[in-house]
Each structure stands twice: as structure tokens, then as C-alpha cells.
Amino acid sequence: MTDPRYYFSYTPVNIAPEVCAGVFVLISIAMTMQTFKSQGPKWLLVLPATAFCEAIGYAFRVVCIYWTTLGTFTATSLFLLLPPNALALTNYKTLGKVVQLSTVFLPDNRKPHVFWLKPRFITWFFFTSDVFSFLLQGIGVGISTQDNKRELAKHTVLSGLYVQLFFFAVFLVIAAYIFIDKRFTVACGPCDHNAQQAKRRLFWVIISTTALLYVRSVYRVAEFVGGYGSKIYGTEWLFYLFDTALVLLSFAIYMQSFIGYHFQPNHQVGTAALNQHPSSAADTAGIKGHAYQMATPYIKRHPQSYRT
User: Fold this and answer.
1) For 264-275, what is the mean pLDDT?
2) pTM confidence score
3) How far is residue 306's CA from residue 268's CA, in Å, rounded to a whole number?
4) What are the angstrom distances between the C-alpha of 88 and each of 23, 101, 253, 302?
5) Judging by beta carbons within 10 Å of its beta carbon (0-12, 13-18, 19+), is residue 285 exposed, middle or buried?
6) Which of 275, 232, 264, 221 is nearest to 106 (CA)?
7) CA separation for the pair 20, 240 (Å, rounded)
8) Mean pLDDT of the residues in the chain
């Protein structure tokens, strides 16, 4: 056993990590139930899985209070630094789905042709960048266990965080553009009166949670730039304020305005496209007869989901 101050630069406070672990377990259970109850897409299970990983991180932090070893400290660092990156993946996938479902029935002369508005680009380009950032941070934490490689570990983690910050900024710009562009629409959830309100609600989730993750990453950059023993690294309440609180707030936003309600199994088509170009759009997209006929009964039964 090692003195916790050797790794943390302070003795971790008790009670707080136990409470955080319990809260994240409850969030994981609640969001799993929310996903299945709403019949939302299964990729949203990334959210409860991320919350569960956070709980594991805080459980290891509890262990470090009583039994600090290199292994428990490394596990704590990995499970608290990396999992929130998966929240960004959820936002990337969500934005890609909005573009995909909004443009499927648009005529060719109204479809976006710039590469950065292609659903596949939005999802996979940002997914790849996030995985690359994830790997750099993970490798950095891994090699930080070796005293003679702490400086290399620091620069490796920082490289991953810088990559993440850059792509967060690019993503926010694209998300803001898609929010303003009226060609892109969102199907209504149970609390939405029209498509405009649904779009505002969904993009509030995407933009606000990405902004919170951006602030968290800035804090992590400052922490690693200062290095072991610095004021930021050695101040525990800053960790709970700029990491724990921001991640918890992100989950609160995801739960309060759940993404899954906007991607129900029968929400297959772009709302504005069907309202503005019903038959011609279907023909232009090459989806004649069967697909359009399947979509039309749902629109007739649930017109409130497609009001503009």
C-alpha cells in the first residue's frame, strides 16, 4: 500500500466518491429503462453504459482511500477520464441521424451536397476522431504508471485532449448550422407541440452537452499542463466541480430531454420533406410506392408528429 498523496497529490475525501458511485449506478439503471420504455434506438444504450463506467471509476476511487496501489490509481484514472468521451459519440450519431432522416425524401436540388453535411461523414468522421483521442488518452494514462515516462505520458494525454477540443469545436459549428437550416427537421416527442419545438429540444441536448464536455476537457488540459503537484492537479474540489458536476449535468440533460423520443421505430422520414414535397420528393429519392405508402398512414394517424 502507498500513501494516496504519492499519486493524487492529496488524500481523497471520503463519502463523496461513494455518493457519486451510487448516483451513477442509479442513472445507468434509469437510462436503460428509459431507452427500452421509449423504444428508442439501441445505440442510446451507450449512455447508461457510460454512467456505469463512471460508477466503476468512483468505486475504485473509494478503494484508493483505504488501499492505494498503482493498479487502483490507474483504474480510477482510466474509468474517470475516458468514459465521458462516449457521450460525444452519442451526439455525433444523433446529428447524423437527423441529417439522414431529414433528407431522405428531399428532391435532389434541395439536398445538401457539401461533404460535411453527409450523414456518414458526420457520424464516422467524428467517431474516428473521438476514438483516436480516446486511444491517445488511454495510452497516456497507461504509460504514466512508469516514473521515468511521466513526461511522455503527460504529452500523450494532452495530445488526445487537444484533438478532442478541436473536433468538439468543429462539431459545434456544424450542429449550429444544421439547427439554423430549415431543411433539417426532427420528429416530435411526447412533450413537443410541433416540429420546431422538437428541433429546439433535441439541439439543446446536443449543443449543451457538447459544450459541457468541452469545458471538462479544458479543465483536463489545465490539469495535465500543470502536471503532478500543480495547484489544479492537487485541488480535489476542482475535480468534483469541473469533472463530476459537468458529467452529472450532462446526464441530467439527456434524461430530462431524452433523445430516444425523437427516433421512434415509425419515424422513418424527414418531416419537412413530406410536408413540402410529398410525392415528388419520394420519386426523386427513388423510394416509390411501398416506402411512401408505409409512411403515409403513420402521418395520417399522428399528424401532431409532423406539424411545422
Assistant:
1) 50
2) 0.81
3) 12
4) 21, 20, 14, 32
5) buried
6) 275
7) 10
8) 82
